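Posting here for the record, re: 2-acetamido-2-deoxy-beta-D-glucopyranose.
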Amino acid sequence: MSFLTGLLKSVVVVVLIVAIAIPLRYGSTDYPYLRARVAHSLLTFRYSFASDPDRPHLTAEYRAFETLLRLRPLLADHLYADPSQAIKLLRLHVRSNNVSPKPSECQIDKEVFVHNQHSTDGFWINHPPRTFQKKIDKLLLYFHGGGYVFGDIETYRGFECYLSQLFNMTVLHLEYRLCPEHTLPAAIEDAVAIYRAILNQGVSSSQIMIMGDSAGGGLSLLTTQALLTQQLPLPRGVIVLSPWADISISSESYTRNKDKDVMLRFDQKEWLIEQLLGSNASQLSADHHSVSPLFGSFEGFPSLFINVGTAETLEDDSRKVFAKAKEAKVDVTFEEGEHLMHVYPMFFGYFPEARRTLENIRQWIQTKFDQKLNT
Ligand SMILES: *[C@@H]1O[C@H](CO)[C@@H](O)[C@H](O)[C@H]1NC(C)=O
Ligand SMILES: *[C@@H]1O[C@H](CO)[C@@H](O)[C@H](O)[C@H]1NC(C)=O
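Prediction output follows.
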């Protein structure tokens, strides 16, 4: 009898831990998210007893996250089995595997921005809640990644809320039009339109930083190049995480780092380019500077921060942008994450390598805002 009671008590304790303590610990009741967190904790525990002799400086937390991605790849091959379904499946897959949920106290407000009869959606993100004062406050205009084919406020708000809190800035998320429904340059038109719209609202360009990751990093560079061409006032600075700067996928790192990259594979290169450029693929070539900023000019760029991992296929995109920016005498900072994956700072909740780079970016932003402009 007492044995049974004891067993029952143990079961109750275990159920309580699973049902209450874990959701409390991670601030969420989303099952796939909690499953990932628990798997990550268990793997971290295991790796804390086993070092990686080839990569001794990586934390157990990082290696655990990397293993999780290997077990459950973001861009699994089966997604491409039927090309007509691939994008739809990809979007569903990404949504149902959100790695950073939105903190409940983070405030998000939608606004429809209109410029020259062109309307585009934006989301103001404030963590903690506050009101953006247009004439004074600093603004981070954020362009999300996702190969120009997926990503939205739902998949990015967790990360953007974190940035708002860490940088002590209001973040403005752009919901740009995605491919293949809206092929390039639709996304660039949306980005320039929202920038013009906020300038028209009375925000000064010197209050604005533009930031983006992956395709959003490419979009940040393309947008800055478009602002230069259109002779618009430039933002205070531009920050890019693993920017996809060459959609023709021509760099050597695409093959060199293929086996190390746990996130991106470009086995479907022609298919992907066709999604981005649509029926114009033959007219608008993928290595044209209007869609691949690497082949455009960096002359006259504002301060630029580039971050990339050395275990990713996009490594050389960043190295080449860095070299071109330096050649053009841009004030450019380059931070490489040795042995780290594509857009690793986005996984700030899982490993310290991510938080360290974001802290460096925070300090960089502060320095750039503190500098006196000579314009
Ligand atoms: C955050 O920014 C506001 C102005 O936007 C400023 O008043 C406040 O002191 C800043 N907080 C910190 C911790 O720097
Ligand atoms: C596609 O090509 C047509 C005809 O050359 C052109 O009018 C149109 O602007 C192009 N679209 C894009 C998105 O480049």
